[in-house]
Amino acid sequence: MLKKSQSYLPSLLLGLLLIGVYIWAWQGLKVDLNTIKDGGKYIAVFLSDFFPPNWQVLPLALEALLETIQMSIIGTTIGAFLSLPIAIISAHNLSPYGLQFLGNLIQNTLRSIPSIILALIFVSAIGLGATAGTFALGIYSIGYLAKFYQEAIESVEANSLQALEVTGASWLQIAQYGILPQILPLALGYTLYMFEYNIRAASILGVVGAGGIGFELVSYINGFERTKASTFMIVMLVVVTTIDWGSSKLRQKLADR
Questions:
Q1: What is the pLDDT of residues 20-58, one digit of tens each?
Q2: Residue 25 within a domain
Q3: Shortest CA distance to 198 belongs to which of 126, 142, 146?
Q4: Does this entry carry the keyword Transport (predicted)?
Q5: Is 51 within 8 Å of 230 (Cβ atoms)?
Q6: How many domains are contained in the chain?
Q7: What is the C-alpha to C-alpha distance for residues 225 and 248, in angstroms, rounded to an integer?
Q8: What is the domain extent for residue 211?
């Protein structure tokens, strides 16, 4: 009986620790439930300003959306190409500790910078427009794609790499013939996921003038033309949902392979 009760002790302690963490987090937020309750009606009033949608701006919404998709395609591609060498030097089954540390430091640094800050940096460097947003998405993508690719590389079957080492294959040949063919379907799935995310992120970067549908969207909201803004949001919702559905199907096919 004593041993059985002792086996539950770690779980009990973990449960108490989690409860303590949530209590600490809730108290730190200083949530006023009365404010939340009263805020519901103000949200309803705010949202009512967005209806009915003004379909006269639909052509402009589609044009801005195409720019957003173009930004995401190029930005994700830039991120994918630059992520691969960083992932390789970060993987523990390919690189010495010094290179691993450098690769992971690059990843962590890029992931710690919000995409909107990167957009501000590029806007200040090359001016307003989609080019700044595209570069911001590309650099932002590196931090995540490199991590995804790294995990895919580290999950490769070790026996296949050892077989190549026995034959005298170089480090580059091991990466080229032993790892890349195995991780390609998984890496493509991660890249598609990042493309989906960048569609959404690109719509936000317009807030700081980095192109895409977000610039027009924020302009209409700030100008109290919210029925026009709702048209942009509906178009964005339809396209993002469609891309999410299509890429999910494609990722599933890649996973099956």
A1: 999 898 888 877 777 777 777 777 777 777 788 888 888
A2: no
A3: 142
A4: yes
A5: yes
A6: 1
A7: 35
A8: 57-256
Statement: residue 73 has pLDDT above 70: yes
pLDDT-based confidence at residue 171 (cuts at 50, 70, 90): low
Cα–Cα distance for residue pair 38/18, rounded to 1 Å: 30
Position 141 confidence tier, pLDDT thresholds 50, 70, 90: very high
Q: Which two tokens stand for residue 21?
A: 């963490």
CATH number (domain holding residue 90): 1.10.3720.10
